[in-house]
Amino acid sequence: MYTLTWKQPDSNDEQRREFAVNLLSETEGRLDVAPTIEIGQDVVSGRQSDESAYTPLWPWAIGVCLAVLMLEWWVYHRKAFI
User: Fold this and answer.
1) Beta strand pairing status for 42-45 and 2-7?
2) 39: helix, strand or coil
3) Residue 27 dihedral angles phi and psi, to the nearest 5°
4) For residues 19 and 1, is the Cβ–Cβ distance under 8 A?
5) Distance between CA atoms of 61 and 41, rounded to whole angstroms?
6) Residues 5-18: tens digit of each pLDDT
7) Where are the domains of the chain?
8) 15 within 8 A of 5, measured Cβ to Cβ
9) Does the pLDDT of residue 61 top 80, yes or no?
10) How many helices and strands in the chain, by DSSP H and E?
11) CA distance 72 to 82
12) pLDDT tens track for 9-60
């Protein structure tokens, strides 16, 4: 889920809307920010959030699993051949 936040010019309340994106679809998963958007006569400029971008954790999980399997293999062979 992604969260879009904005402030209305006449109010101090922050508006928030959550939406889902299909990341496997190339067109739907493209979430780059346009520097400006023209809506009618108004030009709205965007700013980038301070939050970090999405970082996939699956490569780290595979690395940890591989390290555990190597350690288990080493312990097994050490006990089996001593």
Assistant:
1) unpaired
2) strand
3) -75, -40
4) yes
5) 49
6) 888 878 788 888 88
7) 2-80
8) yes
9) yes
10) 1, 4
11) 16
12) 787 888 888 888 776 766 666 667 667 778 788 887 766 655 556 778 999 9
